[in-house]
Specification:
seven-stranded mixed β-sheet; 9 helices; alpha/beta; 18% strand; 9 strands; two-stranded parallel sheet
């Protein structure tokens, strides 16, 4: 069976995000619930991150009752609000900082970067400038990481890119139009807060992409807020998933696959016992040593629902 869905080639994440799902979208499609293809539904992302899945879903479906996106990272949520509400001002600010940066001699760019990082951490600027700084740092820091220290200060080192594209006007405009075409709530809170947005009269679909459980003691890049997302938080999330489980509240969750490093790691098997646990292949490239980058498996867990059997046809 074929179903025609609207695709947008321009709508995509406006920032780089470690652990982003762009490369996994085709695999994630295979695990979407069939119900959302023929019923109106409320879509909820409690850990929106870079928004790869959000913009993918926006490009495929139009049968939404409502969309709720949330993240604990305040700067990130400000950026979504500014993309939606102030795209022109954001573009103007990004164009200016891009011109200033690219016009700076290469040997002085690190100092330029560190100055913007310091201003960003002082939190004394307006929200639009804050987003301009965040997006600038995202495009010029090491590997597009977003990492903060215990004080909440962004501390990623300089990235040394020769000609980074800091202002992607086409993407900002496309994303702004997409976010304004729907009934959407953009929230900065804990993931538990999203429970109150479950549609009591219709279908709800959650996609969870939390900070991944580190595979080794040195592999954690999850500190994008003041507190780490530790095993206790992973357990809280599993309990949350169990609490919302119903035939009208469907959910799908991504996380690291501990068994890819340690065959005896049963943490998620035990945590999500009784649910569907699948393994998908992914490439990760945040290690500073290229020889340690490569393919791993990740987990894709969902509650019991019928998988879609649609073939997509772009129009």
């Amino acid at each position: 069976m074929k179903i025609q869905m609207i695709r947008s080639n321009k709508t995509k994440p406006f920032i780089k995000w470690v652990g982003g799902k762009t490369q996994l979208l085709n695999q994630l499609d295979q695990f979407l619930p069939e119900a959302i293809f023929h019923e109106k539904f409320t879509y909820i992302e409690p850990f929106v991150g870079g928004g790869a899945m959000l913009f993918h879903i926006l490009g495929k479906f139009k049968n939404f009752n409502r969309i709720i996106i949330n993240d604990i990272n305040e700067d990130l949520i400000k950026s979504y609000i500014n993309i939606k509400e102030n795209p022109s001002q954001l573009i103007d600010g990004l164009k200016k900082i891009e011109t200033d940066y690219l016009g700076t001699a290469e040997q002085d760019r690190k100092e330029f970067y560190l100055d913007i990082r310091s201003r960003f951490n002082r939190k004394t600027v307006d929200d639009i400038t804050n987003t301009v700084y965040m997006m600038f740092l995202n495009r010029t820091c090491f590997n597009g990481l977003y990492r903060v220290n215990r004080k909440g200060e962004f501390n990623v080192p300089f990235g040394k890119y020769k000609n980074p594209r800091i202002c992607n006007q086409e993407t900002i405009i496309a994303d702004s139009r997409a976010l304004n075409s729907i009934d959407i709530d953009i929230i900065n809170d804990s993931f538990e807060t999203t429970k109150k947005y479950i549609d009591s009269n219709g279908l709800t679909f959650f996609y969870f992409d939390p900070p991944y459980r580190p595979l080794t003691e040195t592999s954690s890049f999850t500190s994008y807020s003041k507190g780490d997302f530790n095993d206790d938080d992973q357990i809280r999330l599993a309990e949350f998933c169990k609490s919302i489980d119903s035939n009208k509240c469907l959910w799908m969750l991504s996380n690291s696959d501990g068994k890819s490093k340690n065959p005896d790691d049963d943490f998620f098997d035990n945590l999500y016992d009784g649910f569907s646990i699948n393994h998908v292949s992914a490439s990760r490239s945040i290690n500073a040593n290229p020889n340690k980058r490569g393919k791993l498996t990740e987990l894709l867990i969902h509650n019991k629902y019928k998988l879609n059997n649609f073939l997509f046809e772009a129009v």
